[in-house]
């Protein structure tokens, strides 16, 4: 894309319903429209006919390249959030998310780390500075979450430096 899509006046057509929405966008890239792909295109930009959304078949994935949370109308793109919520609920019932991960969930359940943290290590109780006690299983979950957040912050910092 030479200039990208900028501003709050980009017309996007929903190919499932035929409805046109005026969207807010801020990106300088486009998905290649290849007719051989198996993912059905669900949204199309009417200015330059670039792909604005894909519905991934077989997986609970729905993508759009615009900002549905900042649509000009108060409820213009509310259906996208409802559709995403329905996909998540359906996935929780069918458990298709096991296919998305590279390793099956059962491998972690029987791994030595799981046995270490949830059997041997998870039975003890830790005392914090303020006198509250909590299990080491809970401590490990909080520690893991902190490490993930810290890694995200490091990556964000290295991206800003470049």
TrEMBL record:
Pfam families assigned to the protein according to its UniProt record, in alphabetical order: GATase (PF00117)
Domain of life: Bacteria
The Glutamine amidotransferase domain, residue ranges: 2-86
Leader sequence segment: none
Name of the protein: Carbamoyl-phosphate synthase pyrimidine-specific small chain domain protein
Organism from which the protein derives: Leptospira interrogans str. 2006001854
Taxonomic lineage: Bacteria, Pseudomonadati, Spirochaetota, Spirochaetia, Leptospirales
């Amino acid at each position: 894309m030479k200039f990208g899509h900028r501003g709050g006046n980009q017309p996007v057509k929903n190919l499932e319903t035929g409805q046109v929405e005026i969207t807010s966008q801020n990106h300088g890239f486009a998905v290649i429209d290849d007719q051989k792909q198996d993912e059905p295109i669900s949204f199309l930009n009417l200015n330059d006919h670039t792909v604005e959304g894909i519905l991934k078949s077989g997986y609970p994935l729905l993508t759009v390249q615009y900002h549905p949370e900042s649509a000009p109308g108060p409820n213009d793109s509310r259906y996208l959030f409802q559709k995403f919520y329905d996909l998540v609920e359906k996935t929780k019932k069918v458990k298709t998310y096991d296919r998305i991960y590279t390793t099956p969930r059962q491998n972690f359940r029987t791994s030595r780390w799981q046995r270490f943290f949830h059997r041997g290590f998870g039975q003890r109780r830790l005392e914090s500075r303020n006198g509250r006690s909590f299990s080491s299983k809970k401590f490990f979950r909080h520690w893991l979450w902190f490490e993930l957040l810290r890694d995200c912050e490091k990556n964000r910092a290295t991206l800003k430096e470049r």
